Amino acid sequence: MSATRNMLQTYGKRGIYVSLAAAIASTVAFNAFYVWPRHHKYEEFFANYDPYTRMKEICAANKGYMHTCPKELAKLYEEKGKSIAEH
Prior knowledge:
Layout: H1 7-47, H2 51-60, H3 70-80
């Protein structure tokens, strides 16, 4: 008779502990194998990134790739008859 006593509570507690352990393990695994490697890749990328060089590369490509380059904006302003501020 003692084998069936508190069986529901025993299985319930075991289920809660197992699900808690699985949740913690999956969170640690997600961070270790997905978040941290991406974080390190972004840190490496932005340590060597020069936005001015990239802007020159983008603007060197033909119009259509990025129409907000300073040269293109200057042309648009001139076409519309607006003045461009001088430094």
